[in-house]
Amino acid sequence: MDIQELKERIIIEEKIETILEELGMHSIRPHTDYFTCGMPSGDNKKSTVVYKNNLYVDAHTRSITDQYGVSDIISLVTYIRGTYFSESVKWLCDVCGFDYYGSQQEQSKLARWVRDMWKASSELQDDDDKPLEPIDLNILNYFGRYANPLFYKDGISYEAQWEFQLGYDLAYHLITIPIYDELNSLVGIKGRIYKEVVAEYENKYFYIHPCSKSKVLYGLNKTMPYIKEKNEVIVCESEKGVLQLWSMGIQNAVAISGHILSRTQVQKLTHLNVPIVIAYDQGAELDKEGKVDKGFYKREFAKFLPQQELYCIYDKSGTLLNKKESPMDSPNKWELLYDNKNRIR
User: Fold this and answer.
1) Which of 273, 278, 205 minimizes the C-alpha distance to 239?
2) N or C of the chain: less Cβ packing under 10 Å?
3) What is the pLDDT of residue 122?
4) In degrees to the nearest 10, what's the CA dihedral of 269, 64, 87, 279?
């Protein structure tokens, strides 16, 4: 569900008091424009103020502000429950009886105009406006759960293939890769032609069941605890990169399933509240002359908050990685590249 829509529905359907009760807040008292209440672990009956018209939260005794400097009902849930941003939004939807994956309510003409204008002027054009839709898990029974020697040759262990539920489409001879969102809902299925050499006119990868890939960080449903433990997230381009790193024992990675970060992916990475390591394939950062295109990375880095700790992995010499080679394709190369990663800020 769109965050703005969620907030609008909470306000219009007067769900604030219900949310505060479910959070375990005490001494909840309604006033004309706001609610006052106390934190579950605190004695002050008026330590927290929640404003009815915009869901802004003024917590006098606690710092609940998120990475974007926002102090609202979502950051209050995140603080009290210790959940990730998306988990907090899902919890709010469940408490209020809303469908987290539901389509947006009909908007006023003014609201639609404002959002359309914002999208038109955004530099991050993608399919962020398309909602994720969960798929029935039973569909995976059709493909089964099989490890394959093709991926094994590519540095993906059979254990990793099994862990990430890779399967096989016998009818079309495709390796199947289930795509889960961070809440562990199946939202898409990607296929890979079972050939070592793919002709130029063939697409090596394509979606058997499409999803809004710009809203997904592949692997986050499994790698979240390791990201927190390691205090770092490695951002790969492809799902294969996550699987290769997992096979090396490196379990704090996600993939963007493309070459450019979307608005939603940037937000989800930021809400992890850990240093970010960008590790794109060789070629994504090369200009027409085959040199490192630092401008490309600058555009990617500019999408993050100024205070975000950022690192970049690329072959500075241009001799370590072949064209279109991934930093994760070779454990030895990965170790060397990672040890010499660049601190951006």
Assistant:
1) 205
2) C
3) 43
4) 10
The answer to whether the CB of 310 falls within 8 A of the CB of 278 is: yes
Which has the closest alpha carbon to 188: 241, 140, 150?
140
Query: What confidence score (pLDDT) does residue 149 get?
Result: 97
pLDDT score, position 87: 96
What pLDDT, on a 0 to 100 scale, did the predictor assign at position 198?
Answer: 85
pLDDT at position 286? 60
pTM for this predicted structure: 0.86
Cα–Cα distance between 248 and 157 in angstroms, integer?
Answer: 9
CB atoms closer than 10 angstroms to residue 3: 13
- Sheet arrangement for strand 342-343: 253-255, 233-236, 276-278, 310-312, 342-343
Tokens of 3: 């965050």
Distance CA 296, CA 319 (A): 20
Q: Which residues of the chain have pLDDT under 50?
A: 104-111, 113-115, 117-126
Q: Which amino acid is at 194?
A: Y
Phi, psi values for residue 244, rounded to 5°: -65, -45
Domains in the chain, ordered, with CATH? 3-96 (3.90.580), 137-212 (3.90.980.10), 215-343 (3.40.1360.10)
